[in-house]
Amino acid sequence: MELAKIHASKGGNLVLVARNKLKLAELKSELVEKYKISVYIIVMDLSVEGSAKKVYEQTTLEKIQIDCLINNAGFGDFGFFSQTDTDKEVGMINLNIIALTLLTKLYLKDMLDRKGGKIMNVASIAAFQPGPKMAVYSATKAYVLSFSQAICNEVRDQGVTVTALCPGATQSGFQKAASMQDSKIFNNGNLPSSQEVAAYGYDAMIKGKSVAISGFLNNFMAEAAGFIPRNWVLKLVRKIQDAA
Questions:
Q1: Which range is least confidently modeled, 84-88, 161-165, 170-174, 208-212?
Q2: Residue pair 124/97 in contact by the 8 Å Cβ criterion
Q3: Which of 15, 187, 226, 234: CA 20 to 30 A from 79?
Q4: Whether 137 contacts 178, CB under 8 Å
Q5: Mean pLDDT of 201-221
Q6: CATH number at residue 225
Q7: Is the per-residue pLDDT at 180 higher than 60?
Q8: What is the pLDDT of residue 229?
């Protein structure tokens, strides 16, 4: 939502994709009234097989040119892998990895034909290390980071940029969806707002940065993960993510 507001404030038209028709309609109304832009909404659950292709086909049918693709949809889960919900994790993989990959594939081709475009894939600081009690989520975000960096390198001389945004813990609805309200990582009064992280990420996308890590501590953790022994990293992440 905050990314949509930022783009609208720059005078950019929008295609918004989400499951909740009412919330999409409310956001569209707000942005059209405030910024006098065009907003096209697509009600779609991107965790469902074939949804990414349907989104692409719909924008193509409407002759909407996508200059900036922001793959922000995603969710996590919290708990021991032996006890977590299998269907939820399959949906997580479908959304965090498969939908993101297919949307990137489909819109990237058009951008390359035009020799211009920007893509931002939202990864996470969790992409830099394994995540005990968030095993599948951390693995999906490691994929997003690696995938985005590779594609960025492939297209760097063709007018298209790919940015991986790697936020840390943020004030948003994520912790509730991931059942992490009691985790130490979110029991911190100094967490950045979703608006702050969105502004940082949007700016990084416009500048064409390959990897954007918001916050000094998050940058330190990402760098440190490459030097600290792996078993120490695992112990530290487990301690941070345990309940307060």
A1: 170-174
A2: no
A3: 226
A4: yes
A5: 84
A6: 3.40.50.720
A7: no
A8: 60
* Owning domain of residue 135: 68-241
First-to-final CA distance of the chain: 29
Residues 55 and 42: their CA atoms lie apart, in Å, by 7
List active site positions.
137
Read off the tokens for 97: 């990895």
Q: Is residue 141 part of a domain?
A: yes
User: Do residues 38 and 67 make contact, with C-beta atoms less than 8 angstroms apart?
Assistant: no
Distance CA 56, CA 59 (A): 5
- Domain count for the chain, please give it: 1
Q: What is the DSSP string of 79-146?
A: S-TTTS-HHHHHHHHIIIIIIHHHHHHHHHHHHHHHT-EEEEEE--GGGGS--TT-HHHHHHHHHHHH
